Structure formats: C-alpha cells, structure tokens
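Revision sheet: structure tokens.
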Amino acid sequence: MSKKVAIYLGLFFIGFSSLQAQKIDRKKVVQRHNVVNTKADTLSTLTVGNGKFAYTVDITGMQSFPEYYKNGVSLGTQSEWGWNSFPNTENYKFEETLKPYDFNNDGRKALYSVQIKEPERNKKAVEYYRVNQHRLQLGNIGLELYKKNGQKAEVSDLQNINQKIDLWTGIITSAFSLEGIPVKVWTASFQNSDKIGVKIESDLIRQKRLKVFAKYPYPSGQFLDEAAFYGNENQHSTKIISSNPNQGLIEHKLQTADYFTQLYFTDGKLSESGKHYFVYEPSSNSKTVELTVGFSEKSQKTSKSLFADAEKESISGWKNFWESGAAVDFEGSTDKRANELERRIVLSEYLTKVQCGGSNPPQETGLTFNSWYGKPHTEMHWWHGVHYALWGRPEILEKQLDYYFRSFDKAKKLAERQGYKGVRWIKMSDNEGNESPSSVAAFLIWEQPHLIYMTELLYRHNKDKKVLKKYKDLVFATAEFMADFATYDKEQNRYNLGKGVIPAQEVFPAKDTYNPTYEVAYWDWALKVAQQWKERLGESRDKKWDDVIAKLAPLPVQDGVYLSTESAKDSFTFPKWMTDHPAVLGALGMVPESPKLDKKIMKNTLDIVWERWNWGHTWGWDFPMTAMTAARLGLPNKALDALFMDIQTNTYLKNGHNYQDSRLRIYLPGNGGILTTVAMMLEGWDSSTGQFPGFPKDGSWKIKAEGFKKMP
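Predicted:
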C-alpha cells in the first residue's frame, strides 16, 4: 500500500470514527427528561395522544378530578373532529357581522367581519358566530374511588403519589394509595385511532371500592372550555346503546354533534348512574382490570382491544417518532442553561407531536382545552408548523396543510368580498375555514405569506417537483392576493401595505397603520419565492408581482432604527407601542435577510427593543423570535439570553407547557418557537457559515446534533 493511500484511508477512518462518536443516544436524551409528579399540582398534568386526539390526566392517570384541575392545565379530551354549534334560534346571518371600510379612499368599501357593538341584533350576531362552531370536550373518563366509610375519595385523600411519563414510549404510570391500599394505573393512547388504553391494579377492585366513570360535560360557550361544565343538563342527551360484560357503547347527542364512546373492558358491568354519568364496575374476582375507551363520530363495530393493544401501539409509534428526523444532545455543556434548554426541547417535541399532528392548523392550546372557542389561528401556523420541516419531519407539516385545500374556496370568497384577487386566508376559523368575527383578526395580514413559507420548506426538503405541482395553485393564489392587496401610491411611485392593516404587533389601529416593517419584509420575500416557483415549473414570471416587488415601500427607518410601522414615528417613545409582540425584529429572524434590510440598522433596533420594551406584556413566541434575530446578527450569547429571559410568559412548566397567565395556562406557539429557533441556531440558515452558528464558541456548549435542515 502506498504512503498516500494509507494517509487517505487513515483520514477516512478518523472521519468515520468521528461521525460514529457523534451519534446521539436518542433514548437516553429523551428519557432523562421524563416528568415525575409526587403531588397533585394542577399545572403538572400529563397528556397522551396521537396528534389528532389527546387525553390529559390528573395524578391518578385518568380524569378523576376534573373540577379540582379545571383552573390549571385542565383534564381535556379533545379531537380534531369534535365540534358543535348552539342553535341559531334568532336566525342570525353572517352578513350581519360585516362592516364596510374604505381605508385608502379608493372607493373599495371592503366588507370585514368585525365585533360590531350596535345595533343590538348585529352585536348578538357577532357573538353567535364567534362562539359557533366550538370545539367539544368529548368526555371525562376517570376513577371513582371510595373510602372504607363509603364516601367518595377526594384528591386530598390520596397518598404516596408517584407518577411518571416515559416520553420514549408515551406511557404514563401512576401510583398512589388510598387508606394504605396501593393503586397503580398505566395509561396509553392508541396512535391510529381516537382511543386510550388503561390498566389498573389494586385490591380496591376486589373490595368494590374502585370503579371507572364516563361523564359528559356540556360546552361552556366560553373563551375557554375546561372540560368541567356540567350545567344545562337538559340541552343534551346521553344513553347506553349496547352493553355486555365486556363492552359498552354510549351515544352523546348535542345540537349539531352526535358521537359515540366505545368501551371494552375485562369482566364487569356498565350502567347509567346519573344524568350524563355512567359507571363501569369491574368484577371483584381480580385485582387487575384493563379497558379501552374510544371516541368516534360514527357508531362502528371495532375489534375488541385492551390496554396491551394501546401499549403496543404507543411503544411502536413513539419509537418511530423519536428515531425519525433530528435530535440534539447538550450533555457535557458547562453553560448552566444547557440542560434546561434540552428539557424544553424534548418536552416541546412530545407536546407538539401529541397536540398538533392533525390535518389542520392547531389551536393555540392544542387538544387540551379551548382557547378562542377552540378555533385555530392561521397567523400562528408558522409557529406550530415550521419546526417540523426544520427537524426533518416534513410529513407532519404536510398533513397540516390539508386545511388550505379544504378552505380554499372560502378564502377566495373572502378576497372577492373585499375586492381582491386570489385568496385571503382566514385568520380565525374552524377546520372548514368558516370565518369568525374579530376586530383584530379581520385586519391581520401576516398569516398570508405563511403558506408560501411552509410549502417552500416542503420543497427544500428534497427539491421534489411533485411538491411544486401539489401546492402551486395555493401558492400562486396567495401571491395574487398579496400583490393585489398592496396599494399603489402615485405620488411616491411605490406600493404600500395599508392603511387598513393591523400588524403582528396588534396594538396599532387598522385605520391609521401602514407599512409595518415585518410585514413589508415578509411580503417582499414571499412574492420573490412565488416567482421562483413559477420559474421552477417553467412558467413565465408574473408581471404584476414583479412590479410590486420592485416598488414595494422601503422598510421604515428613523434615527438609525427600524420603526415598528411607518405610521408610528414614535415607535420607541410612546409606551403603548412598546407592548405586545416586538414584531419589528421578525423582519430579520423569521424572515431571511433581504436587500431591503440593513443589518446595522437591525442591530440598533434589537438594542433599543431590548432596552425599552415592556417585556411583561409579551407572548411566548416573542422570545424565540428575538433569539432568531440575534442569531442572524451574529450574537449567539444574546440569542440564548433571549431564550431564557426571566419573564412570566417565557415560563415552561414541569410538563413542558409554555405558561402565559391564569387565563392561558398553556401556549403551544411558544413550544413550536423553541423548536424552530434551536433548529436554526444549530443548523443555520442559507447565508450562515460554520457549525452551530447560533451558539457561542467559548467552549461552554458541547453539542451533538443530527438530522436538521437549514432555515431559509
């Protein structure tokens, strides 16, 4: 062997050994962040699910105490399909929520669905269409536990509590005792159906002191639905359709919803115990019982299944998930924040997989409890969906995008109603794209380019032309609206965004606002990408889009910093303008660097935002957004400082949820934001150089990473 060949082989094996050394022990990383509960903390509930169905449990491993937990991370059972509407007894028409606006004095008289305060009938029509449709809490499935004296046990009666979720398998194990008698409960979710499996072991079964209940709450009709409203008993009906010693079928009927609960169990009896309340009493011949509880829109015969089947599906499904896509390991880092960041990452992966893996943009509280009546917000879809592509799991994002095909015709009609071409994606809607009145949502525009951004990520994954063909009609109709929405200013020979815009920073009034920095930068980038799609498909560039790109207003600057919006010259002196999302930073962070942007000016903007912003009035995704801006500016320490800013809305609970306040106890855009930002800081972006460009190079971070994709 020649000396040169030997050297090459030596280098090859050194490189190969190095690669092998970097291989992550994914199971070890995931399991070191398993959650353990030793007391009944209402903010530490745990969830099992499959992305389109989720079941959240208390300390018993089931939903035994829904009223005790309702003001924490509530004990929800929700699905993608479970929706209901209250009767429209006054025959309200959606048209009664519409109000004409002509923001730019061009005779447009565009109709927006807003929160009209008078006359009274229009106000009530608005209230009706905000509340309906609403997502359902499908039912509480919990334990009835009895003390020796025959009284029902309360949370305070449980002792020796030890509950753990094994994140690698998705299985929750709950142990506790009642009056000295141990109880052990195993909980898992099926991965291919809306069904849970439970195994219970205790001598309480033999003593007939442990039963399982199914209780059906009524929709609260409120902003939140905490799965514990048991009023209005006569406005819905529940009955047993069939039962025998091993199964039971329950039908629950509401105004526009009719669904079924199928139970399979080891020997026992299902009976009605009260209005909307049913009890399975297991046979006392054994101290172990297994059961499965499934929810479905239709009554359909399913094969008998017990906990072992759920366990098998859960173990297999979660193993496939954790072994797919990207992973990161910070073990050995000396920065004290490394373990906490890794914890937030792993738990965010788990939570978003459980709550946000269906064929719709998720609601901001996932499938735990309703926020905004259970309705998804499309402007949040960037935060819910982008991370899947960057973490090498584009198939989950692609599934979510089914919504845009289903809602296309309604989005097109919205654009037509306001006199625009193309499609205007509806900000607040149900799964079918039905619009909800809102005096903010109606004027937001930053959700419009998201479809282009997300489909571009799908294309970048493998540069597959099939992606272009699948989504081209959505992309081009989106761009058509964006180009038409821009208002031509003859005096300055430019296109403006607005008036008639509420930016991502929602404190600005629509009637006065134009050219918000983030939206202008995003508009510019997305229209350019849409033109690239034209070229990739061999089509001619759209002349109108090119005209808008060429003449789009510059990013507004004053005194060497970017204004939040051109209409707010006092962006950093008027207190109100320094609350809510500091979205001006999104112009470099969420949006890639563009020729319109000066990084020195953005650095000045980051400094002034950092110093002057009222950070107590922000939201969970604002911290990842700020970190992305810092990373793109070459400030990795600042990026980490942003991720760990000590602000309430940047709190990540023991179970991984992003806590905002007593109203919004969980907030999944924060979890998605963590995952997106970390992926960017690790793998970089198109113009970045070097390894892990968003992390300091001072030796305090030891990083193993694999499977990530670059951000644009």
